[in-house]
Amino acid sequence: MNIEDYAGNEPNLKIEEYFAGETVAWGMFQDRFGNVQKRFKVLMNGEVKDGVLTLNEDFIYSDGTESNRIWSIKIIGDGHYQGTAGDIVGRAIGRSAGNAFNFKYQMRLPINGREWVVTFDDWMFLQEDGVLLNVATMSKWGIKLGTLTVAFEKSGPEKAVKEQQ
């Protein structure tokens, strides 16, 4: 897919605006055969300061385990972004156009007692009702390992303001 194909689509998605404040998400990871391997909920809090979106993500998995990731996403301008986090290898590269955002990065993941470096190709699409849908492909050496599907919704005061508009 090409991010520019979505340039004219509404509503316009700027991740620094969407993820500012509180956001909640629900997701699942499916292996390459379509089997659901993990389900989770994410409580997120974002803050923009000095051209950087800091996004604190608290994951709660269906098996009761929890984890945290803190993204630092630099807003470069003209729809370009660069991100880092503790488990990200190098920099994540982001692009936005219209209602879409694409984020590509490599992540260190513990799998069966070993650490794997896997590649993510995230595609997010903002819907008219404010729900943000995310489908990400996870691969290693070009081989698809699975798909991550996530639905984001604003919570707290941001949601109330949006509903009044």
Question: What are the salient characteristics of this protein?
Answer:
165 residues; mainly beta; 2 helices; globular; disordered C terminus
Account of the 3D structure:
Helix content is 7%, strand content 65%. It is built from 2 helices and 10 strands. It has helices at residues 15-18, 157-164; strands at residues 21-31, 36-49, 52-61, 66-77, 80-84, 88-97, 100-111, 114-126, 132-140, 143-154. A 10-stranded antiparallel barrel has the order 1-2-3-4-5-6-7-8-9-10. A hairpin with a 5-residue loop joins strand 8 and strand 9.
In short:
With 165 residues, the protein is mainly beta. It is 7% helix and 65% strand.
Overall mean pLDDT: 93
Which H/E pattern describes the elements? HEEEEEEEEEEH
Radius of gyration of CA atoms, rounded to a whole number? 16 Å
Instruction: Classify the secondary structure makeup into a structural class.
Output: mainly beta
- Helical amount among residues, as a percent range? under 10%
| Sheet with most strands | 10 strands, antiparallel, barrel
The count of helical stretches stands at 2
